[in-house]
Amino acid sequence: xxxxQNVKGNRKIxxxxxxxxxxxxxxxxxxxxxxxxxxxWRTKYGKLYITYVNSEELLEIGSEWDTEIDYKxxxxxxxxxxxxxxxxxxxxxxxxxxxxxxxxxxxxxxxxTxxxxxxxxxxxCDSDSDSDNESxxxxx
Length: 140
Fold this sequence. Notes:
Layout: E1 12-17, E2 38-44, E3 47-52, E4 58-62, E5 76-81, H1 90-93
């Protein structure tokens, strides 16, 4: 068995990393490193927060750029163990059912195929027929 094969007992996931930058204007004349003026500064959720010495007030400054992440391309993809990210697969939680030669009552028998599902065709996605969804790199 391959070490990257995703099977019960060896679950795998793909971890894609996306990067973005946020730019914040510092108030005119302020030195964020000057501890006599600035008690603390930090960024969180696309905002710069500054706390001045001897002040309870928190200055909030928004980013100069749109900081929404573009998920079209990732900077890195790796195959990782699902356990490292606490990702569970539902099919691992289901009890293993014995394989019978007879289909279950809920499954159609060979003679009872559904009219809407031709035997030799693959399922199609609505976007398969939309040529407008094709990007410049050939991916849909």
